[in-house]
Design goal:
2 domains; three-stranded antiparallel β-sheet; 49% helix; globular; Arc Repressor Mutant, subunit A; 281 residues; alpha+beta; Jelly Rolls; six-stranded antiparallel β-sheet
Length: 281
Amino acid sequence: MSTTVFNNSLKTLGLLLVSQAQTHAINGPAYKEYIKILYLPAGYKIKVDFTCYDTQQPTLFFVSPNQYLELQATGQERGYFIFYNRDFYCIQIHDQEVACDGLLFNNSRNMPKVELSEVENAFLSGLFQEMLEEFNLNDHSLEEMVRTYLKQLLIRATRSWKRQHLTTEVTDQQTELDFFRKFTRLVEEHYKVKHTVADYADLLCMAPKTITHKFNRLRLPQPNEVIKNRIMLEAKRLLAHTSLTAKEIAYTLGYDDPAYFSRLFMTKTGESPSSFRASFV
């Protein structure tokens, strides 16, 4: 496998060239713990959690360690696979630099992709080549140089994500965008213990109705749906990829009444937890 990896103490960043030969390794456990970015040209097929994507043009995918990734088919052109850990670059600590948390990663609508225009694709193709050359040089400044390239990628992708997934009104109003990101981050952090809009209203120091009004202006699903959808996504992950019982999953997700949790799962997904799991056996 063609791999270039930086390792220093606890910090790791690696860059792989993607082709059919690397599919098994990418889908295996070796990269599960890392934050992952995939650059895939047209003709690739990828599954993130429970959604499949067929690339019609060069596309970036952003995958968190808790998400499930499966590269199902490769195209004729090679792609790139970046993996790194939070010790190398933590988007929460450096939020002011790249402002991608809640958008590229951990966003409430679970849309992990950015399709690239010709201009953006040309820029990023050059950026990947620069990264490869930097690894080949293996200079003492390698760490800072590849971190700089990573930040450029995240900033450019964040701008594109906002254009593709948010309304013009949202992207033009920084306060609305900050609210969108903050709510998303809070749900990601607390969904196992906080299940109602009122819970998040307390964290945000605002009335529940205010949150609902903001979501209406943002043209987003109702905030209660966002919370429940995040809970259901985790329930699906646990049903599909662990041996936990439905009762154990209910407790894991903060529900003391497993029967209520099963009814909620049925309402949201249209099938029982046992039926959903059976489809993955």
